[in-house]
Amino acid sequence: MNLLWDAGRKSLDMIEDAIEEGMLEWKGWRKGKYWRRELKTLMRISAKASSGGGKNKESIEKAHVRSYLELSRSLSGKIGASLLAIYERVLTTNQVEMHAEQIETLEYFHGMLNKQIDLVERRVIRGETIPSEEKIHSLFEPHTEWLYKGKSNKRVELGHNILVTSDQWGFIVDHLVVEKQVDVSLSIPLADRLLSRHGEGTIKSISFDKGFYKKENKELLSLYILAVIMPKKGKKNKAEQEEESGKTFKKLRHKHSAVESDINRLEHHGLDRCPDKGLKAFKRYCALGVLAANLHKVGNVLQEKAREQGEKLRKAA
């Protein structure tokens, strides 16, 4: 419901900007405030009916949503007609380049308005389950994904997972902003990046979480890396139980827990929230966060060496 409102209000914002810039006549949009007020009212009523309970909830919800969709369709049609008028105005006045960005933004939000009308109708009126690839969680950052954080409380965040790889000294040697991929598909490309960067035979062990487990991937990685720690989810056969209860497996698995502290360290270096806009800026911000965490780590190492050196000098004196 909220995304449909967001698309409508931002489209109206862009229409107002077009009028101020002289791309569109004020005539026909004198009731701009009425459109905004009515759209917001119907959004609130529909959202309340959707989240509420009581007798005949479904029929009441559908009735309110139909009114919401009817007004949204009328608004979409009016915006579509205004876009045609804008195209004609900028072409005849040779101002296409001057207003290209504003027109593109209006087209985007108008398209999102139509998409949300379709999604709300299918989900609420027709009772369809919307496939995850069709869902949009933010109009302003459409690349974001719906992420579940934590095993118990199922906390939800919008953004992207980041695959982080650290070495035995705690420095982050590889990171990747994950875009609509599952963990299982990430292990082989990660090993390829590490081996091409550091050379074959340089990596003695590599450890993953349970979510990365796939038998074929583990077998392939074992051809290039001596110890592949990839715990299996679910029931294990005798050989797998023996492997995971072995001393080497347990030792390297225990070291893997340091990744949790790496994640916490990254959050303390700004990666708990990204203030920048767009996927490219998101990736840049993540890279800067990793760099900051590594520089902090270098600083800690240098301080520790300085303390040790000072201690030696005091003892010598």
Q: Would you spell out the secondary-structure blueprint of this structure?
A:
Layout: H1 2-20, H2 32-51, H3 57-92, H4 96-125, E1 145-149, E2 155-159, E3 162-166, E4 172-177, H5 187-198, E5 205-207, H6 215-222, E6 227-229, H7 238-244, H8 247-256, H9 258-271, H10 279-316
Parallel strand pairs: 5-6
Antiparallel strand pairs: 1-2, 3-4
Would you give an account of this structure?
The chain is mostly helical. It contains 10 helices and 6 strands; from the N terminus they run ααααββββαβαβαααα. It has a two-stranded antiparallel sheet with strand order 1-2. The chain has a two-stranded antiparallel sheet with strand order 3-4. The protein is elongated.
Task: Determine the number of helices (DSSP H or I, runs of at least 4 residues).
Answer: 10
Work out the radius of gyration.
28 Å
Number of domains: 3
* SSE pattern: HHHHEEEEHEHEHHHH
What structural class do helix, strand and pairing data support? mainly alpha
Beta-strand content: 5-15%
Overall geometric form = elongated
Strand adjacency order, main sheet: 1-2
DSSP strand count: 6
Mean pLDDT: 90
Report on the biggest sheet.
2 strands, antiparallel
List low-pLDDT spans: none
Helix percent reads 55-70%
How many angstroms does the end-to-end distance come to?
74 Å
